[in-house]
Amino acid sequence: MEHAQFNHDLLNFLDSSPTPWHAVSTMQARLEQAGFTALDEKDEWSLEPGQGYYVIRNGSSIVAFRTGQGDVVGKGIRMVGAHTDSPCLKVKPNPELRRKGFFQVGVEVYGGVLLNPWFDRDLSLAGRVTLLDGSGAVKDTLVDFRKPVAFIPSLAIHLDREANSNRTVNAQTDLPPVLMQVPDSDTTSFASLLERQIASETGIDVRKVLGYELSFYDAQGAAFVGLREEFIASARLDNLLSCYIGLQALLDSSGEEPALLVCNDHEEVGSMSAEGAQGPFLSTVLDRWCGVGRSRAIARSMMISADNAHGIHPNFADRHDENHGPLINQGPVIKVNHNQRYASNSRSAGVYRHISDELGLPYQTFVVRSDMGCGSTIGPLTAGNLGVTTLDIGVPQLGMHSIREMTGAEDGYTLYRVLQEFMQRPQVF
User: Fold this and answer.
1) Which of 253, 234, 235, 232 is nearest to 80 (CA)?
2) Which of 132, 301, 329, 341 is the most core-located residue (most Cβ within 10 A)?
3) 88-218 has which CATH code?
4) Distance of CA 314 to CAs 158, 180, 188, 320, 328, Å?
5) What is the helix (H) or strand (E) element at residue 306, kind and residue range?
6) Closest CA to 63 of 275, 255, 300
7) Which CATH superfamily is domain 3-86+235-424 in?
Protein backbone atom coordinates (compact mmCIF):
# COMPACT_ATOMS: atom_id res chain seq x y z
CA MET A 1 0.00 0.00 0.00
CA GLU A 2 1.33 3.44 -0.93
CA HIS A 3 1.79 6.15 1.69
CA ALA A 4 -1.05 8.46 0.59
CA GLN A 5 -3.48 5.58 0.18
CA PHE A 6 -2.51 4.28 3.62
CA ASN A 7 -3.31 7.59 5.33
CA HIS A 8 -6.57 8.23 3.51
CA ASP A 9 -7.73 4.70 4.27
CA LEU A 10 -6.70 5.20 7.90
CA LEU A 11 -9.03 8.20 8.19
CA ASN A 12 -11.90 6.11 6.81
CA PHE A 13 -11.10 3.34 9.30
CA LEU A 14 -11.12 5.77 12.22
CA ASP A 15 -14.43 7.34 11.20
CA SER A 16 -16.12 3.96 10.78
CA SER A 17 -14.96 2.73 14.22
CA PRO A 18 -16.50 4.90 16.97
CA THR A 19 -16.55 2.02 19.49
CA PRO A 20 -14.67 -1.28 19.97
CA TRP A 21 -17.64 -3.17 18.49
CA HIS A 22 -17.62 -1.02 15.38
CA ALA A 23 -13.83 -1.32 15.11
CA VAL A 24 -14.04 -5.12 15.18
CA SER A 25 -16.91 -5.06 12.69
CA THR A 26 -14.83 -2.87 10.38
CA MET A 27 -11.83 -5.22 10.69
CA GLN A 28 -14.07 -8.24 10.11
CA ALA A 29 -15.37 -6.77 6.84
CA ARG A 30 -11.83 -6.12 5.62
CA LEU A 31 -10.68 -9.61 6.56
CA GLU A 32 -13.67 -11.15 4.77
CA GLN A 33 -12.88 -9.12 1.68
CA ALA A 34 -9.31 -10.44 1.80
CA GLY A 35 -10.53 -14.05 1.91
CA PHE A 36 -10.09 -14.80 5.62
CA THR A 37 -12.43 -17.42 7.09
CA ALA A 38 -14.46 -16.84 10.25
CA LEU A 39 -13.98 -19.30 13.13
CA ASP A 40 -16.44 -19.90 15.98
CA GLU A 41 -15.07 -20.80 19.39
CA LYS A 42 -18.00 -23.18 19.89
CA ASP A 43 -17.03 -25.29 16.87
CA GLU A 44 -14.24 -27.69 15.99
CA TRP A 45 -11.52 -26.05 13.92
CA SER A 46 -9.81 -27.56 10.90
CA LEU A 47 -6.98 -25.23 9.94
CA GLU A 48 -5.22 -25.55 6.61
CA PRO A 49 -1.76 -24.32 5.54
CA GLY A 50 -1.57 -21.06 3.65
CA GLN A 51 -4.96 -19.81 4.81
CA GLY A 52 -6.22 -16.82 6.78
CA TYR A 53 -8.65 -17.08 9.69
CA TYR A 54 -10.18 -14.85 12.34
CA VAL A 55 -12.16 -15.32 15.54
CA ILE A 56 -14.12 -12.70 17.51
CA ARG A 57 -14.96 -12.68 21.20
CA ASN A 58 -17.68 -10.46 22.70
CA GLY A 59 -17.84 -8.55 19.45
CA SER A 60 -15.11 -6.22 20.75
CA SER A 61 -11.90 -8.30 20.52
CA ILE A 62 -10.49 -10.12 17.51
CA VAL A 63 -7.65 -12.49 16.65
CA ALA A 64 -6.75 -12.83 12.96
CA PHE A 65 -3.96 -15.05 11.66
CA ARG A 66 -2.33 -16.60 8.64
CA THR A 67 -1.29 -20.22 9.10
CA GLY A 68 1.64 -19.86 6.70
CA GLN A 69 3.33 -22.64 4.76
CA GLY A 70 4.86 -25.44 6.82
CA ASP A 71 4.79 -26.34 10.50
CA VAL A 72 3.83 -23.57 12.92
CA VAL A 73 5.69 -25.29 15.76
CA GLY A 74 8.92 -25.28 13.80
CA LYS A 75 8.53 -21.76 12.45
CA GLY A 76 7.04 -19.86 15.37
CA ILE A 77 4.52 -17.01 15.02
CA ARG A 78 5.11 -13.36 14.24
CA MET A 79 2.52 -11.64 16.47
CA VAL A 80 1.29 -8.06 16.71
CA GLY A 81 -1.00 -6.84 19.49
CA ALA A 82 -3.09 -3.69 19.95
CA HIS A 83 -6.31 -2.68 21.70
CA THR A 84 -9.71 -1.59 20.42
CA ASP A 85 -10.91 0.56 23.34
CA SER A 86 -10.29 4.23 24.12
CA PRO A 87 -11.11 6.41 27.14
CA CYS A 88 -14.61 7.83 26.80
CA LEU A 89 -17.95 8.56 28.47
CA LYS A 90 -20.36 5.61 28.64
CA VAL A 91 -24.10 5.83 29.23
CA LYS A 92 -25.33 4.53 32.60
CA PRO A 93 -28.03 1.79 32.78
CA ASN A 94 -30.76 4.12 34.12
CA PRO A 95 -29.53 7.36 32.60
CA GLU A 96 -32.56 9.68 32.30
CA LEU A 97 -32.12 13.11 33.91
CA ARG A 98 -34.67 15.94 33.55
CA ARG A 99 -33.51 19.34 34.72
CA LYS A 100 -35.03 22.74 33.88
CA GLY A 101 -36.58 21.41 30.69
CA PHE A 102 -33.44 19.64 29.47
CA PHE A 103 -33.28 15.90 28.82
CA GLN A 104 -29.85 14.63 29.83
CA VAL A 105 -28.27 11.23 30.42
CA GLY A 106 -25.92 10.14 33.17
CA VAL A 107 -22.49 8.96 32.08
CA GLU A 108 -19.71 6.88 33.59
CA VAL A 109 -16.08 7.73 32.91
CA TYR A 110 -14.34 4.83 31.15
CA GLY A 111 -10.56 4.73 31.52
CA GLY A 112 -8.20 7.62 32.11
CA VAL A 113 -10.15 10.30 30.28
CA LEU A 114 -8.75 13.81 29.84
CA LEU A 115 -12.11 15.38 30.74
CA ASN A 116 -11.85 19.09 29.92
CA PRO A 117 -11.75 18.63 26.11
CA TRP A 118 -15.17 16.92 26.24
CA PHE A 119 -16.89 20.22 26.95
CA ASP A 120 -18.37 22.24 24.07
CA ARG A 121 -17.96 19.50 21.48
CA ASP A 122 -20.54 18.08 19.07
CA LEU A 123 -21.11 14.57 20.40
CA SER A 124 -22.65 11.53 18.80
CA LEU A 125 -23.50 8.16 20.32
CA ALA A 126 -22.72 4.58 19.31
CA GLY A 127 -22.23 1.06 20.67
CA ARG A 128 -23.87 -2.31 21.10
CA VAL A 129 -27.47 -2.96 22.11
CA THR A 130 -28.93 -6.29 23.26
CA LEU A 131 -32.63 -6.55 22.48
CA LEU A 132 -35.68 -8.76 22.17
CA ASP A 133 -36.91 -8.68 18.60
CA GLY A 134 -40.39 -9.13 17.20
CA SER A 135 -39.97 -12.90 16.94
CA GLY A 136 -39.01 -13.23 20.60
CA ALA A 137 -35.28 -13.81 19.92
CA VAL A 138 -32.54 -12.17 21.98
CA LYS A 139 -29.96 -10.60 19.69
CA ASP A 140 -27.21 -7.99 19.58
CA THR A 141 -27.02 -5.13 17.13
CA LEU A 142 -24.77 -2.15 16.58
CA VAL A 143 -26.11 1.38 16.68
CA ASP A 144 -24.49 4.64 15.58
CA PHE A 145 -26.38 7.93 15.47
CA ARG A 146 -23.71 9.32 13.08
CA LYS A 147 -24.62 12.95 13.76
CA PRO A 148 -24.30 15.37 16.67
CA VAL A 149 -26.98 14.44 19.20
CA ALA A 150 -25.52 15.76 22.46
CA PHE A 151 -23.47 18.57 23.98
CA ILE A 152 -21.78 19.20 27.33
CA PRO A 153 -21.79 22.99 27.72
CA SER A 154 -19.15 24.70 29.82
CA LEU A 155 -20.18 27.00 32.62
CA ALA A 156 -19.66 30.55 31.37
CA ILE A 157 -16.60 32.33 32.74
CA HIS A 158 -18.92 35.08 34.07
CA LEU A 159 -20.29 32.51 36.53
CA ASP A 160 -16.90 31.01 37.35
CA ARG A 161 -14.28 33.74 37.40
CA GLU A 162 -11.49 31.28 38.32
CA ALA A 163 -12.25 28.94 35.43
CA ASN A 164 -8.89 29.52 33.76
CA SER A 165 -6.88 29.04 36.93
CA ASN A 166 -8.78 26.70 39.23
CA ARG A 167 -11.53 24.73 37.51
CA THR A 168 -11.94 21.05 38.31
CA VAL A 169 -14.38 18.58 36.76
CA ASN A 170 -16.81 16.58 38.89
CA ALA A 171 -17.49 13.43 36.88
CA GLN A 172 -20.90 12.90 38.50
CA THR A 173 -22.40 16.38 38.27
CA ASP A 174 -20.57 18.23 35.48
CA LEU A 175 -20.60 15.71 32.64
CA PRO A 176 -24.20 14.63 31.84
CA PRO A 177 -24.71 15.66 28.19
CA VAL A 178 -27.77 17.56 27.00
CA LEU A 179 -29.75 15.65 24.35
CA MET A 180 -32.92 17.72 23.92
CA GLN A 181 -35.51 19.94 25.55
CA VAL A 182 -38.68 18.39 26.98
CA PRO A 183 -41.84 19.62 28.71
CA ASP A 184 -42.38 18.98 32.43
CA SER A 185 -44.85 16.22 31.57
CA ASP A 186 -42.32 14.30 29.44
CA THR A 187 -41.91 10.58 30.15
CA THR A 188 -39.50 9.72 27.32
CA SER A 189 -37.21 6.83 28.20
CA PHE A 190 -33.70 6.46 26.83
CA ALA A 191 -34.63 2.93 25.75
CA SER A 192 -37.44 4.26 23.56
CA LEU A 193 -35.01 6.62 21.84
CA LEU A 194 -32.75 3.63 21.16
CA GLU A 195 -35.63 1.59 19.79
CA ARG A 196 -36.45 4.26 17.23
CA GLN A 197 -32.82 4.64 16.21
CA ILE A 198 -32.32 0.87 15.81
CA ALA A 199 -35.47 0.57 13.73
CA SER A 200 -34.28 3.44 11.54
CA GLU A 201 -30.77 2.00 11.08
CA THR A 202 -31.49 -1.70 10.79
CA GLY A 203 -35.21 -2.23 10.28
CA ILE A 204 -35.27 -4.57 13.29
CA ASP A 205 -38.63 -4.79 15.06
CA VAL A 206 -37.53 -4.09 18.63
CA ARG A 207 -39.88 -5.50 21.23
CA LYS A 208 -37.68 -4.48 24.17
CA VAL A 209 -34.19 -3.12 24.82
CA LEU A 210 -32.57 -5.54 27.28
CA GLY A 211 -29.22 -3.79 27.73
CA TYR A 212 -26.62 -1.66 26.02
CA GLU A 213 -22.98 -0.56 26.05
CA LEU A 214 -22.97 2.88 24.49
CA SER A 215 -20.31 5.57 24.29
CA PHE A 216 -20.42 9.22 23.36
CA TYR A 217 -17.85 10.24 20.77
CA ASP A 218 -16.62 13.32 18.95
CA ALA A 219 -18.78 13.85 15.87
CA GLN A 220 -15.93 15.64 14.08
CA GLY A 221 -14.24 13.23 11.72
CA ALA A 222 -10.57 12.40 11.37
CA ALA A 223 -8.60 14.92 9.31
CA PHE A 224 -5.21 16.02 8.06
CA VAL A 225 -4.12 19.20 9.88
CA GLY A 226 -1.18 21.59 9.65
CA LEU A 227 -0.14 24.02 6.94
CA ARG A 228 1.53 21.14 5.11
CA GLU A 229 -0.93 18.51 6.37
CA GLU A 230 1.89 16.78 8.19
CA PHE A 231 -0.37 15.81 11.11
CA ILE A 232 -3.44 13.64 11.58
CA ALA A 233 -6.06 14.65 14.15
CA SER A 234 -8.80 12.28 15.28
CA ALA A 235 -10.56 10.67 18.17
CA ARG A 236 -9.36 7.22 19.25
CA LEU A 237 -5.90 7.34 17.65
CA ASP A 238 -4.92 5.58 20.87
CA ASN A 239 -5.18 2.82 19.89
CA LEU A 240 -7.16 2.33 16.68
CA LEU A 241 -4.13 3.61 14.78
CA SER A 242 -2.21 0.52 15.92
CA CYS A 243 -5.17 -1.75 15.11
CA TYR A 244 -5.20 -0.38 11.58
CA ILE A 245 -1.44 -0.67 11.18
CA GLY A 246 -1.43 -4.26 12.43
CA LEU A 247 -4.38 -5.22 10.22
CA GLN A 248 -2.83 -3.78 7.07
CA ALA A 249 0.51 -5.40 7.86
CA LEU A 250 -1.19 -8.78 8.19
CA LEU A 251 -3.29 -8.35 5.04
CA ASP A 252 -0.31 -7.19 2.98
CA SER A 253 2.18 -9.79 4.24
CA SER A 254 3.16 -12.63 1.94
CA GLY A 255 1.35 -15.33 3.91
CA GLU A 256 4.39 -17.60 3.79
CA GLU A 257 5.05 -17.40 7.54
CA PRO A 258 2.68 -17.92 10.47
CA ALA A 259 1.52 -14.44 11.53
CA LEU A 260 -1.13 -13.17 13.92
CA LEU A 261 -2.87 -9.96 14.97
CA VAL A 262 -4.72 -9.66 18.29
CA CYS A 263 -6.77 -6.57 19.14
CA ASN A 264 -8.10 -6.73 22.70
CA ASP A 265 -10.80 -4.72 24.41
CA HIS A 266 -10.51 -3.26 27.94
CA GLU A 267 -6.83 -2.24 27.87
CA GLU A 268 -7.73 1.19 29.21
CA VAL A 269 -9.21 -0.32 32.38
CA GLY A 270 -6.62 -2.99 33.14
CA SER A 271 -7.37 -5.76 30.59
CA MET A 272 -8.90 -8.12 33.17
CA SER A 273 -11.86 -9.54 31.25
CA ALA A 274 -12.75 -12.56 29.14
CA GLU A 275 -11.71 -10.66 26.02
CA GLY A 276 -8.95 -8.53 27.55
CA ALA A 277 -5.21 -9.16 27.36
CA GLN A 278 -5.22 -10.58 30.90
CA GLY A 279 -7.94 -13.02 29.86
CA PRO A 280 -7.51 -16.33 28.03
CA PHE A 281 -8.60 -15.31 24.52
CA LEU A 282 -5.25 -15.32 22.72
CA SER A 283 -4.01 -18.30 24.72
CA THR A 284 -6.98 -20.46 23.73
CA VAL A 285 -6.56 -19.56 20.05
CA LEU A 286 -2.88 -20.55 20.20
CA ASP A 287 -3.77 -23.82 21.94
CA ARG A 288 -6.14 -24.76 19.14
CA TRP A 289 -3.70 -23.70 16.43
CA CYS A 290 -0.46 -25.15 17.82
CA GLY A 291 -1.78 -28.09 19.84
CA VAL A 292 0.69 -29.92 22.07
CA GLY A 293 3.59 -28.09 20.40
CA ARG A 294 2.47 -24.69 21.62
CA SER A 295 5.36 -24.17 24.06
CA ARG A 296 7.90 -24.92 21.32
CA ALA A 297 6.11 -22.58 18.93
CA ILE A 298 6.13 -19.80 21.54
CA ALA A 299 9.87 -20.26 22.05
CA ARG A 300 10.34 -19.44 18.35
CA SER A 301 7.81 -16.58 18.35
CA MET A 302 7.83 -12.85 19.03
CA MET A 303 5.09 -10.39 19.95
CA ILE A 304 5.16 -6.70 19.03
CA SER A 305 2.78 -4.77 21.26
CA ALA A 306 1.82 -1.65 19.28
CA ASP A 307 0.40 1.18 21.38
CA ASN A 308 0.95 4.89 20.84
CA ALA A 309 3.77 6.68 22.63
CA HIS A 310 4.05 10.12 24.22
CA GLY A 311 5.61 12.46 21.69
CA ILE A 312 7.47 15.44 23.09
CA HIS A 313 5.15 18.43 23.54
CA PRO A 314 6.78 21.72 22.45
CA ASN A 315 5.14 23.59 25.36
CA PHE A 316 6.08 20.97 27.95
CA ALA A 317 9.42 19.59 26.77
CA ASP A 318 10.60 19.28 30.38
CA ARG A 319 8.16 16.40 30.93
CA HIS A 320 10.51 14.10 29.02
CA ASP A 321 13.94 12.70 29.77
CA GLU A 322 16.36 14.95 27.88
CA ASN A 323 17.73 12.04 25.83
CA HIS A 324 14.42 10.31 25.19
CA GLY A 325 11.94 12.83 23.82
CA PRO A 326 10.30 11.24 20.75
CA LEU A 327 9.52 13.67 17.94
CA ILE A 328 6.45 13.38 15.75
CA ASN A 329 7.23 12.26 12.18
CA GLN A 330 10.70 11.02 13.20
CA GLY A 331 9.81 7.33 13.44
CA PRO A 332 8.03 4.81 15.72
CA VAL A 333 9.10 4.73 19.36
CA ILE A 334 10.62 1.69 21.10
CA LYS A 335 9.38 1.83 24.70
CA VAL A 336 11.78 0.78 27.45
CA ASN A 337 11.10 0.43 31.17
CA HIS A 338 13.36 -1.75 33.31
CA ASN A 339 10.60 -2.06 35.93
CA GLN A 340 8.64 -4.04 33.32
CA ARG A 341 5.88 -1.53 32.66
CA TYR A 342 6.95 -2.19 29.07
CA ALA A 343 8.07 -5.63 27.90
CA SER A 344 10.89 -4.58 25.57
CA ASN A 345 14.31 -6.12 26.08
CA SER A 346 17.55 -5.76 24.15
CA ARG A 347 16.78 -8.78 21.96
CA SER A 348 13.26 -7.79 20.93
CA ALA A 349 14.32 -4.17 20.40
CA GLY A 350 17.30 -5.40 18.41
CA VAL A 351 15.08 -7.37 16.05
CA TYR A 352 13.00 -4.28 15.33
CA ARG A 353 16.03 -2.04 14.87
CA HIS A 354 17.61 -4.56 12.52
CA ILE A 355 14.53 -4.75 10.27
CA SER A 356 14.19 -0.96 10.28
CA ASP A 357 17.84 -0.52 9.37
CA GLU A 358 17.49 -2.96 6.48
CA LEU A 359 14.50 -0.98 5.18
CA GLY A 360 16.21 2.36 5.77
CA LEU A 361 13.46 3.53 8.13
CA PRO A 362 13.80 5.65 11.30
CA TYR A 363 12.98 4.71 14.89
CA GLN A 364 13.25 6.35 18.31
CA THR A 365 13.43 5.25 21.95
CA PHE A 366 11.34 6.37 24.93
CA VAL A 367 12.20 6.09 28.61
CA VAL A 368 10.03 7.92 31.13
CA ARG A 369 11.65 10.48 33.43
CA SER A 370 13.03 8.76 36.52
CA ASP A 371 10.92 10.99 38.77
CA MET A 372 7.63 10.21 37.00
CA GLY A 373 5.39 7.15 36.90
CA CYS A 374 5.22 5.03 33.77
CA GLY A 375 2.11 3.82 31.99
CA SER A 376 1.80 0.31 30.60
CA THR A 377 0.36 -1.68 27.69
CA ILE A 378 -0.82 -5.16 26.81
CA GLY A 379 2.86 -6.01 26.19
CA PRO A 380 3.85 -7.10 29.74
CA LEU A 381 0.49 -8.86 30.20
CA THR A 382 0.89 -10.88 27.01
CA ALA A 383 4.54 -11.63 27.72
CA GLY A 384 3.68 -12.84 31.21
CA ASN A 385 0.72 -14.94 30.09
CA LEU A 386 2.37 -16.60 27.11
CA GLY A 387 6.06 -16.50 27.93
CA VAL A 388 6.73 -14.91 24.54
CA THR A 389 9.55 -12.47 23.78
CA THR A 390 7.87 -9.09 23.40
CA LEU A 391 8.60 -5.59 22.16
CA ASP A 392 6.61 -2.49 23.12
CA ILE A 393 6.50 0.12 20.40
CA GLY A 394 4.18 2.87 19.24
CA VAL A 395 3.66 5.87 17.03
CA PRO A 396 4.38 9.16 18.87
CA GLN A 397 1.32 11.30 19.50
CA LEU A 398 0.13 14.38 21.38
CA GLY A 399 -3.07 14.81 23.40
CA MET A 400 -3.20 11.18 24.51
CA HIS A 401 -6.57 10.28 26.12
CA SER A 402 -8.15 13.51 24.90
CA ILE A 403 -11.36 13.46 22.88
CA ARG A 404 -9.18 14.49 19.93
CA GLU A 405 -5.57 13.42 19.55
CA MET A 406 -2.78 14.25 17.10
CA THR A 407 -0.07 12.22 15.46
CA GLY A 408 2.24 12.56 12.47
CA ALA A 409 1.32 11.62 8.92
CA GLU A 410 4.64 9.77 8.46
CA ASP A 411 5.01 7.51 11.49
CA GLY A 412 2.04 5.20 11.02
CA TYR A 413 3.17 4.25 7.55
CA THR A 414 6.72 3.68 8.77
CA LEU A 415 5.52 1.27 11.47
CA TYR A 416 3.28 -0.49 8.95
CA ARG A 417 6.22 -1.17 6.65
CA VAL A 418 8.34 -2.66 9.43
CA LEU A 419 5.47 -4.80 10.78
CA GLN A 420 4.66 -6.06 7.30
CA GLU A 421 8.27 -7.21 6.89
CA PHE A 422 8.27 -8.66 10.42
CA MET A 423 5.16 -10.74 9.64
CA GLN A 424 6.71 -12.28 6.53
CA ARG A 425 10.29 -12.70 7.73
CA PRO A 426 11.38 -16.39 7.59
CA GLN A 427 13.31 -16.29 10.90
CA VAL A 428 12.88 -14.11 13.95
CA PHE A 429 14.44 -16.34 16.63
Assistant:
1) 253
2) 301
3) 2.30.250.10
4) 31, 40, 48, 11, 11
5) strand 302-306
6) 275
7) Zn peptidases (3.40.630.10)
Report the SS3 class of residue 303: strand
pLDDT one-digit tens code per residue, 70-111:
999 999 999 999 999 999 999 999 999 999 999 999 999 999
The predicted model scores a pTM of 0.97
Q: Which of 238, 242, 99 is nearest to 179 (CA)?
A: 99
Task: Decide the pairing of beta strands 206-218 and 123-133.
Answer: antiparallel
Tell me whether strands 333-335 and 364-366 are parallel, antiparallel or unpaired. Answer: parallel
pLDDT grade for 24, boundaries at 50, 70 and 90 = very high
CATH 2.30.250.10 in the chain, residue ranges: 88-218
Q: Which helix (H) or strand (E) holds 330?
A: none
Residue range(s) of every CATH 3.40.630.10 domain in the chain: 3-86+235-424
Helix (H) or strand (E) holding 91: strand 88-99
Half-sphere exposure of 383 (CA within 13 A, CB side): 20
